[in-house]
Sequence to fold (1122 residues):
Amino acid sequence: MIEIVISLTLIFVAASILLYIFNRLNHPTIPAYLIAGIIISPFVKEAGILSLAEIGIAFLVFIFGISLRLKKTEKIIESTAPETIAQVTIIGSLTFLYSYIIGFGTLNSLYLSVAASLSSSLIGMELIKGEKIKLAYKRLCNSINLTQDIIAIFIFLVLASYPLTRLQIISNVQIGVIITIAGFAARFLAPYLLEFVKRSQEASMLIGLSVLLIFTTTSQHFGISIIIGSFAAGIALSKSPYDREILKTFESLKDFFSAIFFVSLGALIVIPGRSTILISLGLIFIIVIVKPLFTMLILEIKGYSKGTSLMTAMNLDQMSEFALILAIHARIANQIQPVVFQAIILAAIVTMITSSYTSHHVWDIYNKVKNTWILNLPGTEFVESKVPEDISNHFIIAGYDVQGTRISKFLKEQGEKVIIIDNDPERILEAKEENMNYIYGDLMIHETWEESKYREAQMIISTIPLNNITEKIIELKTEAYKIVRTEYPEEAKKYIDDVLYEIVPKYLSCTRLIENLKGSLGSEKYRKRLRDISRKELT
Amino acid sequence: MTYLFLYTLNSYINQRKYEWKKMDGLTPLTLNFAILIVTATIFVIIARKTKQPPLVAYIFTGVALGPVALNIVTETASIELFSKLGLGFLLFLLGLEMKIKDIRKILKPIIRISILQTIMQTALAFIVAYLLGFPLMHTTIIALCTVFGATPVIVKVLADQNKIKTLPGRINVGVLIIQDIILVIYLALFSTGTLTDPSIIGYTLLRVFLMIGLIGILVVITSKYLLSGLFGRVAENKHAFFIIGITWAFAFITLGHVLGVSIEVGAFLAGLGLGQIPFHKELQERTRPLTNFFLVIFFASIGLQLTTQSLFAYWKEAVITSAVLMIGNFLIMFYLIDREKFTPRTSFLGSINMTQVSEFSLVVGGIAIVQGYIPADLLGYFSLMALITMTLSTYLITYNEKIYERVKHIFERFESEDKKDVEMETLENHALIVGYNETADKIIPTLREHFEQIGVVDKKIKNVEKLEEKNLKYIFGDFKHEEIQREMGLREADLIISFAKEDQVNKEILRKCKEKSIVFIESESPEESEEYYDMGADYIIRKNILTAEKIKGYLENYLKNLPKFISQIDRDTESLIWGSKSS
Fold:
């Protein structure tokens, strides 16, 4: 027994070291684990570890199932379903055709095409997390990722049937659907059970585990993948507000076991031969170059701005963790050749690392390719703006959120000329309704600024606390006064000499807050009045 | 040194001999495991409905499914692994909970208590066993085996009730840790194969202390120079933070094993090292669910290990010994704690918690059987005793305060002027800030005018140093964790200001705060704000609106009264750069 504890120690030590390095470099987690696995592979011979890793897969899918807020999910998926399906189909069939022509046979080609077409939501989310404000592309990425994950579950339903004959597939899909329906049915029962043990973290954890184990053993019993069982179990517990309690307790378990899973997955890699490298290079090419191109094309056709499309594409250019799970299943069931399996893992590591690079340097990439055909694809000329020809001495408001709206309205009331710039279509619609002048475009793109006639403006006010936007505004050569927004007071010093004024909300909102606080502590009357007034302000 | 190494290796191989279980698949996704968990769940639900402690439910899960009753679940490799990790992680968690500066105040009495207690309880167990007619050799082993309190039971039940940090809780934990060290020495002694050669005994003692000292030094050095920086740099990434914490535990578990001082002591020292850095609370709350998961398996596997035939071989003796030891241990502990001039209440609670025979008796007993000191069926005697005393004492610990209220009058005679408890600080009627930022910083002086105590919870790494220096109660961690809410006195606070910007946190605050407390919450979303008002929030801080209003005022001056505008922005800019308090 102690050998396994020692193996686990080795796994965690290697994982921690790489996690630490990757964290310092701002790279995502999963490739750190996979590389840790490769490093320790000569030392860990324990076949048992991989079977321990199985529960890591179960937890990953289980948590995914729990966190699906069904109503919300429906809405989110609806908003990009056509785009996502188009993208997955195009990339999937391209990869399939290519590998089939090279001679990989149906099964291998099928797995390769899944690996190429799906992107990782875990990594996508990790890359976005650093940015605090709401941006259009975040919504887009979130929605595409979610849709892809649902597609992945469907693929599991079909592909994780062994042997892969038509009869087997049909029977497995039937069982899978029944189990999923059982999950939905259990969704109505689970709250009663959880209500029973309210406020006990331990008991609700046990109930969660029981549900998970009942569903996974059932699906094992019927010979289908535990992934379907775990997903159904997650659905069963996804009813709010219990889902949050369960998520809170399972987060640690998931982190622990999924780390073991990813590291032991990496440990399966041996020194790659020539064919492994060639296949993975092909995969990498498709994921890093071809996929973003098509993503951008599809999004631009749908009318998203260049910047938004590019940022979204650069967030989706990696392999999905679901593809890894599928690959290991296929490998164990001998459905794919070892070279193909190895190539998939290798390509996963590489693309997961490059994708963090591309999304951190998205604007450098933009500047490099802005004049090439890549960003000027035919049929994507979609620019909408309303700027009077002869405007001058005007105010430019960057960002039309709470602050932008209020300031613009105020200036307009004062009889001033205002142009709004935003890259969120929804906010542009709002500006349209308010009869404002507006530009739908990206603040990082110089053409947007040209359009705003910034040289003739009297003042540029940015309400967006992003450093690269602030820097872009400082770069603009104009007589106009510049007011920018900074999130943290300690960062304010950096730009203070280049602009007229920096809006620091944390600082500005303080005075009023302290007044309200003193008043509330002083008298109950004040407190009630404050509550009524500020509540009214909401509507 | 080489000899030392060989010796350690030898004892390691010796220990391996007793690991009789085969290593089959490690996957827990089996029917076997599913039955175990589902049964435990059912038992726990029943236990909650009938107000029984969950621990009893787990042990009986094992008993019901194991050889004693249904015999349908076998102890597989995964169960064995998880139960081993359960014990390790429990002690890791325990270490995390200890602040050395808090223990220091009561360190001396604890050492005195635990040494005297070990001697007196061994004597008591010896006399009981001797009177029951066991031969001398058996009596000696029995006495040595039954002296320990069951660390997992006591720690788990106390932690479940949030009593670990009370004074009796700390006394118990201190005594248990010293007992664990004594246990390690016993284990090492039994594995040597001779109990008669004083030079080998002396050598073993020396070796164990040396190794513990070695780990101790490592812990001190790393916690002083390495850990704060290491965890500080990754604390923002919740996942990496947790995994590195776990790794720390694993590293010391392995180290403890390799140096022959047991997994438990290694894990405890690892936790102790991490317990001294500002991030310990967050790590603790992240590790707890994992530990709870492993512990369910650990306690169930105690039940699984029992077999019927040997269980009842000495049942009369076991019942008698259990009764005598429970009462005797209580009296001995009470006498010893009372002797250290703590109040009768502390003495009572501290001693009623420690009345059971530990499951370690099974481990030590198992080794003694293999070495041929005692016959195999004595294990049933140990098992039955552990089962009886652990189950009963779980109730005693759970209801210790109620029991004390009932029998208070008897113990009040021990009251005297010079007996007093060491003070433990708590928060009450305080102001609580959730999420620290510049705004919070600016309002703290105002709060100080109105409140004696101020608590701050924050999970941003850049604020750690600043907050540690301020004269207030500060915890680094996520306010989602119930344990942290309790420690910061969410239910006792008079004023709560949340800058957390997390819907879940804000709703929990509104749900759990006392009715009269004033709650300010920052939120930028109108929908959320509406909900918070409905739930009873007093004021929603909307920074963007407050800021927009201010900027509107400035722009009005820009258009109509330029000099005033210039003086306004100059004043702001200046105070931004110099950080002056005028605004």
